[in-house]
Amino acid sequence: MLIRLRLSRRTLRVGPKLLLMLLVSGLAAAPAHGSFRLSPRATRGDFEAFHSRFSSDAYFYPRHSASPLGLVGFEVYADATYDDEFDDQSFNGTAVDGSYIGGFLSVARVGARKGLPGGIDLGLAYGKTLNGDVKLISAELQYAILHGGVLEPALSVRVTGTRTVDATAYELSQYGADVLLSKGFTVLTPYIGAGLIRSKGRLDRGLLPSFEDTETHGVAFAGVTLNLLLPKINFEVEKGEALQAAVRVGFGF
User: Which residues of 121-144 are buried (b: 16+ CB within 10 A; e: fewer)?
Assistant: First the structure.
């Protein structure tokens, strides 16, 4: 319990500053081949451990409230995650070649969301592991059960899909569903949620037989949106296989 509390404080204190710096320089300027990649020499056990943790970290968490954008609403954004204990895991001994930038794992995304009729929002994002070679395309569809108001909270359900693109050794195919609850105030909109994800991973081992693994597990998250005129800033704490933090900076209305 003390370890988790210490991790949480470190994440919330250090993560946002690092993530915002990485968003500026990492996703667009990162080299095509990062300094770490999943190794074809991984043992089955280390591959499965890597896949379990990485697929959880790479899940397409909402990082926004449950309120629908509305017919004319839209948002464009950039975000990034921060898992400061990924480098400490034993599976790195055989599963990963190279090293992590700063000793932590971060997945950065740029994306857009658009409001549709009937309380439906549609989103699409492109992501990449910073200093790594895993690239992701993600999509989300959200439906607002309660739109929210002065006294009423907003409640939404969301389905997501993520898969790797231009894969080298590691391939990921992931689907998820979650529920969000939020309540808007003048400047801040806190929200919470939970869901279930199913992730299928595959490791291409060249001339050797490929490894495959499928994981199903729950996720939970809590965050707050700082409702500035421009931009909107989201801080989110996410719990899947591990605890991580995320920051999103978005523009829109």
Answer: bebebebbbbbbbbbbbbebebeb
- Whole-number pLDDT of residue 150: 86
23 exposure class (CB count in 10 Å sphere: 0-12, 13-18, 19+): buried
- What b/e readout covers 185-198, taking b as 16+ CB neighbours within 10 angstroms? eeeebebebebebe
**How confident is residue 8, by pLDDT bands cut at 50, 70 and 90?**
very low
Summarize pLDDT for 189-232 with one digit per residue, the tens.
999 999 999 999 999 999 999 999 999 999 999 999 998 878 99
* Residue whose tokens read 């839209």: 74
How far apart are alpha carbons 142 and 37 in whole angstroms? 33
Nearest CA to 205 out of 156, 170, 161, 248 is that of 170
Q: Please report, for the chain, how many H helices and E strands are present, in that order.
A: 3, 12
**Pairwise CA distance, residues 211 & 206, whole Å:** 11
Percent of the chain exceeding pLDDT 90 equals 75
88-to-22, 99, 104 alpha-carbon distances in Å = 21, 11, 9
The tokens for 183 are 């309540």
SS3 state of residue 41: coil
CATH no. of 2-252: 2.40.128
The per-residue pLDDT for 7 is: 38
Q: Which of 98-107, 109-118, 138-147, 165-174 has the lowest mean pLDDT?
A: 98-107
Alpha-carbon span 175 to 179, nearest angstrom: 14
